């Protein structure tokens, strides 16, 4: 005889299995096809109905936010390492912009999704974007205090600059050297005249 308790456990276990499977498939699909893949396309690839996918993730931003949690934790570790190792605040900012740009290129097309999400407070990606803007602001302020970064810039400005570089330097939009050229232009834009 199946009790309600054992039935609920099985339902929760099945739901957890579906969620884990969807995340694994979505990770693979986004890595191979880019972040533009539709939710219906992900459901089809995962072999689940759209309703099952939407029960776990209200929209693609929610799905991406969950997938990016691990990458975000790695980026936060890089930030801590950069801040601990670098006495030169300008070099710390330069390294942070590179790390931020790498994070924005985890999935091709992610930069476009982030661009749309950062300004929508309702997006599940908005808190991640704001956390990264705040981290960029702290690193930028240290560089400004040392006189190696222009006054008047904000972490928001640098974040958007890195986002533009990631978008323009993405796999579908540029030749291999474009990101380096644009990254150097961004650095020349934030560096103080005497740096």
UniProtKB/TrEMBL annotation:
<dbReference type="GO" id="GO:0000976">
    <property type="term" value="F:transcription cis-regulatory region binding"/>
</dbReference>
<keyword id="KW-0805">Transcription regulation</keyword>
<dbReference type="InterPro" id="IPR049445">
    <property type="entry name" value="TetR_SbtR-like_C"/>
</dbReference>
<keyword id="KW-0238">DNA-binding</keyword>
<keyword id="KW-0175">Coiled coil</keyword>
<dbReference type="InterPro" id="IPR036271">
    <property type="entry name" value="Tet_transcr_reg_TetR-rel_C_sf"/>
</dbReference>
<feature type="DNA-binding region" description="H-T-H motif">
    <location>
        <begin position="38"/>
        <end position="57"/>
    </location>
</feature>
<feature type="coiled-coil region">
    <location>
        <begin position="68"/>
        <end position="95"/>
    </location>
</feature>
<dbReference type="Pfam" id="PF00440">
    <property type="entry name" value="TetR_N"/>
</dbReference>
<dbReference type="GO" id="GO:0003700">
    <property type="term" value="F:DNA-binding transcription factor activity"/>
</dbReference>
<keyword id="KW-0804">Transcription</keyword>
<dbReference type="InterPro" id="IPR050109">
    <property type="entry name" value="HTH-type_TetR-like_transc_reg"/>
</dbReference>
<feature type="domain" description="HTH tetR-type">
    <location>
        <begin position="16"/>
        <end position="75"/>
    </location>
</feature>
<protein>
    <submittedName>
        <fullName>TetR/AcrR family transcriptional regulator</fullName>
    </submittedName>
</protein>
<dbReference type="InterPro" id="IPR001647">
    <property type="entry name" value="HTH_TetR"/>
</dbReference>
<dbReference type="InterPro" id="IPR009057">
    <property type="entry name" value="Homeodomain-like_sf"/>
</dbReference>
<dbReference type="Pfam" id="PF21597">
    <property type="entry name" value="TetR_C_43"/>
</dbReference>
<keyword id="KW-0614">Plasmid</keyword>
């Amino acid at each position: 005889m199946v009790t309600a308790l054992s039935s609920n456990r099985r339902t929760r276990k099945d739901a957890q299995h579906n969620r884990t499977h969807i995340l694994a498939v979505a990770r693979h699909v986004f890595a191979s096809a880019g972040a533009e893949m539709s939710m219906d396309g992900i459901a089809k690839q995962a072999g689940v109905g759209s309703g099952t996918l939407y029960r776990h993730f209200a929209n693609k931003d929610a799905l991406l936010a969950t997938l990016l949690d691990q990458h975000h934790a790695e980026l936060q570790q890089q930030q801590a390492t950069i801040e601990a190792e670098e006495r030169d605040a300008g070099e710390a900012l330069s390294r942070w912009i590179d790390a931020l740009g790498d994070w924005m290129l985890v999935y091709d097309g992610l930069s476009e999704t982030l661009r749309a999400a950062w300004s929508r407070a309702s997006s599940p990606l908005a808190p991640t974007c704001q956390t990264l803007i705040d981290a960029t602001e702290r690193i930028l302020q240290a560089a400004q205090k040392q006189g190696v970064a222009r006054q008047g810039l904000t972490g928001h400005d640098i974040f958007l600059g890195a986002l533009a570089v990631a978008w323009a330097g993405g796999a579908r939009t540029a030749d291999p050297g474009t990101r380096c050229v644009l990254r150097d232009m961004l650095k020349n834009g934030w560096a103080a005249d005497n740096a």
